[in-house]
Amino acid sequence: MLVTCTSAKGGVGKTTSAVHIAAILAGDNTTLLIDGDPNHSAMKWAQRGDLPFKVVDLMSAAKHTRNFEHIVFDTPARPSRDDLEALVEGCDLLIIPTTPDILSIDATLETVDLLGALNCNCYRLLLTIIPPSRRTGEQTREALAEFPLFKQSIRQYAAYEKAALGGVLVNQVKDRNARVAWSDYQRLGKEILT
Ligand SMILES: Nc1ncnc2c1ncn2[C@@H]1O[C@H](COP(=O)(O)OP(=O)(O)OP(=O)(O)O)[C@@H](O)[C@H]1O
Ligand SMILES: [Mg+2]
Questions:
Q1: Would 121 be classed as within a structural domain?
Q2: From the CB of 113, is ligand 1 less than 6 Å away?
Q3: FRET label pair with 27: which of 123, 182, 186, 192, CA 20 to 30 Å apart?
Q4: Into how many domains does the chain fold?
Q5: 24-38, pLDDT tens digit by residue?
């Protein structure tokens, strides 16, 4: 399976999601994370510590892809229309992380419009960085209810920052919410694989 994370707005959890989805898919399979962002956030994450799957730069990806069952592709924010078309063409599942604020929701609605014009039905929206107040998450879900949306949302936990800093997965950091944060991606992984 080839899974791509994209979003019209930056800082919505693409890289964090790409890293944790790659970890879930890497369970019994060989999984490669391709870092397509010139900032190299995923490569740097891996270099700071130890991730249980290989991370490579987009420029060297061609050589590696044939050896892996699953590929997760992390991309820079704000793809052009042409970029989006190419991403759609090149993946099985396009995941669009969206945070519960109006700027992110508006940006996602614009992307969804473009995807409609491209006749793409391989995308799903993922609600990310959802604060503890239940109402915020529910309101965002209601605003996007007509679109394909993962049932599982990713809640907001400081443990993710610690994971990025340490170069590890969220379940490996010392934090009282590390396990519950990881359980969000575990449940998301089940949805992706069914
Ligand atoms: N579920 C979460 N809870 C709390 N913080 C989070 C969560 N997901 C991501 N973050 C934090 O939000 C920030 C942005 O996350 P991330 O880098 O994954 O977003 P991005 O969409 O890849 O950003 P960019 O567009 O710059 O590539 C980071 O500081 C990250 O640690
Ligand atoms: Mg990123």
A1: yes
A2: no
A3: 123
A4: 1
A5: 999 878 999 999 999
